[in-house]
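Re: beginner question about structure tokens

> Can someone show what the tokenized structure looks like for a real chain? I only ever see the sequence side.

Sure, here's an example I had lying around. Input first:
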Amino acid sequence: MEKTDPKVIGARVRIARLLQEQTQADLAKQLEVTAAFVCQLEAGTRQPGADLLAALSVVLRVEPEFFVRHISDEFRDEECFFRKRKTTPMYARSRALAHGSFLTELVSLLEQHVDFPDEDVPNVPEGSKPIDEIAEESRVAWGLGVDTPIVNMTRVLENAGIVVADFGSSRKVDAFSRAGARAVVVRNTETQAPSRLRFDLAHECGHLVMHAGQDASKPELEPAADAFAGAFLLPRRAFVAEFPRTSSPSWQSLRELKRRWGVSLSAIIRRARELRLIDPLFYQRAYKQMSARGWNTHEPDEHLISDEKPELITTALRMLDDAGEITPAELAQRLGWAPVLFTEITGEPCEQLPDDIIPIDRARRGRGVG
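And the corresponding structure tokens:
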């Protein structure tokens, strides 16, 4: 392995450690070194020997080559919008940020082989006009109209060139997003019902449209993103026309709206209150009834809402594999990831390359071809 700057190695160790939600003490215990040594290693003041680097590779599920390259695009906390930031512990955010950094390395590599859709995200700062107008203009910009349900929220974002990915191994993070070289939205599929996942995507969409370039750590940005999500999924004119014309709509009528629009009962009730279609008394009573029925965590009719799957990365991987250009295993090797880590990040299977197999792209580079 080529020699490199100890600070580069340290940064790589840190980000791979955070991806596994480990502390420096956790990593030190596995390596049978002191936590102080790991701290110095990550700071770049200690250089690991070949044996320690090999041990790090095993523990962190990467290859030794992983440590020699600079982190091309690291996700930072102040750049990323988190759902429920106030209640999301820093260790969970750090793991999510590391996941995002790994994801963008993969996307950057894929874009060398596959043309992703051009990014097309409206930029309408919050406060420049009412949020309902911003949401409707975004719908129009993406050819969605302003009076029909959105069939597939994931596909809306991907068609706009936004990478959507799943992050299903942490119960502390609902979703997060970042507007960078390419916008990314990562969602947690482990605990979220389909209707809530759709709302999470619309919420992050609101951040990308209204808050790109702002300090994402500001908690006051969250209510605006919620308002955008409600207006985007339940546009004012159509929602008002379809909402029951009564001061006390039945649960049956509200459930029919949920099935048609693919939005949770909770979001429907909140949107109805925003538009003054129900009064404060009904609003409070409805939430109490939902809690009593256990609908705060398990709403009815979720099985009738499609489980949307991200397609951009999966499609790119399969196109390259089917064309015989580069397999997932070869991509993992170029990234310096172990196959199990590749599968964790992408959700796609990845086999271990035999030791005597050399990827064709490496052979071409060795001969000066391509």
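Each token stands for a local structural state, so reading them left to right follows the chain. Residues 32 and 363 are 38 Å apart (CA to CA).
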